[in-house]
Design goal:
There is one protein chain. The protein is of the alpha+beta class. The longest helix is centred in the N-terminal third of the chain and has 16 residues, at 6-21. A 6-stranded antiparallel sheet has the order 5-4-3-8-7-6, sandwiched between helices. α2 packs across α3 and α5 packs antiparallel against α10. 45% of the residues lie in helices and 19% in strands. The chain contains 10 helices and 8 strands.
């Protein structure tokens, strides 16, 4: 039978305390509210500070950051069943061993809705606080394939095209052509565009009527070695949650 995890309940209780008190608190005050030893409260606070959910003020008091509210805003604004997407990304991670992401475009940047870390010691460590530029992300370029060239050009023109790595494309015409190629083949692949020696493979489609992209992310060499398997896994998982099956032009064998 499942059992209750006291530490999880205490974590939730911490945020309920801040909502109730509406002010920064000390470790002693948090411990008193939780009815635990100060050392236990300090360990819990330290963990939440390290995770980005709490911060220490200039007076060494503790206060919530906006991370929890940002996550909830993303969940509410997305209008998507996040649990289903989370499970899809976890399945994709288990099939490939690599980190996986899901995202959508908001205000001409990609908002990462779900990030699942891979099994490899050397892996991409994304999270849902990320905002990815369209011109360097596989998620963004896959999502752009759902639009025509004019809309792609307009979206890419509204933000700076910053050079982030050796493979970054900053020419609008080259980017529109690249997205056109991705649209034709049904999948997007970027290598060393947003970060050196980082590759990402992505597909996009409609999920309950909303545009959504899924991607597999990892070192360039490892994604190249397992490209066919990863693309197959990506298509399989996408077909499970997208409104319609993908039409993928698989690369020809050498």
């Amino acid at each position: 039978m499942p059992s209750t995890v006291p530490a999880a309940l205490r974590t939730i209780r911490v945020f309920e305390i801040f909502a109730q008190e509406r002010r920064p608190l000390t470790n002693v005050e948090i411990a008193t509210h939780l009815d635990v030893a100060v050392s236990s409260a300090s360990d819990l606070v330290h963990t939440l500070v390290e995770a980005g959910y709490l911060m220490r003020t200039a007076r060494r008091q503790i206060a919530p950051t906006n991370r929890l509210s940002e996550i909830m805003r993303a969940v509410n604004a997305a209008g998507l069943p996040i649990v289903e997407i989370q499970e899809a990304c976890e399945r994709l991670r288990d099939l490939t061993g690599e980190s996986t992401l899901a995202g959508r475009i908001v205000d001409d940047v990609v908002h990462v809705l779900v990030a699942v870390h891979g099994h490899h010691p050397l892996r991409y460590a994304g999270d849902t606080r990320q905002r990815l530029a369209l011109h360097v992300s596989a998620l963004g370029k896959a999502l752009l394939t759902l639009s025509d060239d004019d809309a792609v050009r307009a979206a890419l023109s509204r933000r700076p095209l910053t050079q982030l790595a050796s493979g970054t494309l900053t020419d609008i015409d080259a980017l529109v052509a690249q997205v056109g190629k991705f649209r034709e083949q049904g999948w997007a692949l970027v290598e060393s565009e947003g970060e050196e020696d980082l590759a990402a493979l992505a597909v996009a489609g409609q999920h309950h009527g909303e545009a959504l992209a899924l991607s597999v992310v990892g070192p360039v060499g490892r994604l190249r070695r397992h490209f066919d398997d990863h693309l197959g896994a990506l298509v399989r998982v996408a077909d499970e949650i997208f409104d319609a099956p993908l039409s993928i032009d698989l690369p020809a064998e050498d």
